[in-house]
Amino acid sequence: MHIEFLVEEPSAEAALRNLVPRIVPGVDVQFRVFQGKQDLLSKLPGLLKGYRRWIPADWRIVVLVDEDRQDCTKLKAEMERAAEDAGLITRKIAGGGSSFQVLNRISIEELEAWFFGDLQALHLAYSSRHFALTV
Predict the structure, then answer these.
(1) Mean pLDDT, residues 28-52 taken together
(2) Residue 78 pLDDT more than 50?
(3) Residues contacting residue 28 through CB under 8 Å, at least 6 positions apart
(4) Domain 2-129 has what CATH class?
């Protein structure tokens, strides 16, 4: 299996280079880093159409962008629409089945707190959402 990550900045690539081998060992990965979220989103429809022409069956494309205080529902719909218009199957469309080709994900600023293990920041971020945190 091969996973192609489309990320908006070098820091996302650096984090994923450390995390992915621990989560899915032995999987071949490649990163395409863009000059910010708008750069990635503006190029996404064309990129996905290009992938559609030759993507092997065992490849997955993961698109990762930051929330940046944007409406997550609208942002996710834009990402899903780009894949659908390109003729690719997203995980949402596949219903979580293994037949998907594109996985669209939005990270929120608290991702950094999870990555660095800042338990106080996690508690502050999620305590209003009834998130139980045990130190």
Answers:
(1) 97
(2) yes
(3) 1, 2, 3
(4) alpha beta
